[in-house]
Amino acid sequence: MIAEGLGFGICLGGVGYFSAQYAWWRPVVDWSAPRVLMYHMVRSHRPGTRFNKLRVPPEQLEKQLAWLKARNFHFVFASQLVSDEPLPERSVCLTFDDGFEDNWTNADPLLEKYGACATLYLVTQRDGGWSSKKKAHHKDDELQAEPKLTDEQIHNMVKTGRWELGGHTITHANLAKIEDQAATHEIAGAKKELDTEFQVNSQTFAYPFGIYEPRHSQMVAAAGYRGAVTTESGIEKRPYGDPFQIPRIKVSGTEGLLGFSMRIRGGKRGLFK
Length: 273
Ligand SMILES: [Zn+2]
Description:
- Its EC number is 3.5.1.-.
- Helix content is 37%, strand content 15%.
- By secondary structure, it is an alpha/beta fold.
- The chain has one domain: Alpha-Beta Barrel (TIM Barrel).
- Strands 1, 2, 3, 4, 5, 6, 7 and 8 form an eight-stranded parallel β-sheet that branches.
- Strand 3, helix 4 and strand 4 (118-122) form a beta-alpha-beta unit.
- The longest helix has 20 residues, at 2-21.
- The relative contact order is 0.17.
- Zinc ion is lined by residues 97-98, 168, 172, 208.
């Protein structure tokens, strides 16, 4: 009897743990609200390093795309989110931050295979000036060492019609830590560079590290962007209350398909993240 009670208790504990990790109880956000997914790298993990969450292995991305495809998700660009265009239910927008080379070598063939498209938030100065440090004491060698896209690769990406470009500043600046004049230059200068170099009209922006203050949203609007994405987890309905604060769904390289599907349903995987 005691043993049975103990077993029941352990079992309940397990259910509680599972329910906190995977929020099956969270209501599904209305499917008319587009899901905006945030990716960084698409490559195998580097054992013993800090940022494997940012590395979604290609096999994992393929499973995710197949999962979305099987459920009739409709792939859209971020520019469509902030346009007046009506979008069908189950719209999903893939976004890739920073400009890692594997977005072209590993992700693009999968986008092609599954008829998907994506928005690339590109740091314009990807060599030398690149900063992946959120705080001054952070070492940023790990992300700095990852190969970045060349201009030629980006030209090819744009040519496929599967990729659109969005701004992510010139140097991956922490906007809250620099003067307003420098922030304006980072935001507006990046748009000018992207639009001129790649002959596009970039429509949306992603705040580096997800760090920004209201005045930065105003700078983004003044630069000619129509909207911006954050790193806040969530799903919002269109038309957006504030198109310069669109939340995204984090896709983690260390999570399986169950976590992914929970995030697509409710914006978060579990109770807290
Ligand atoms: Zn970034």
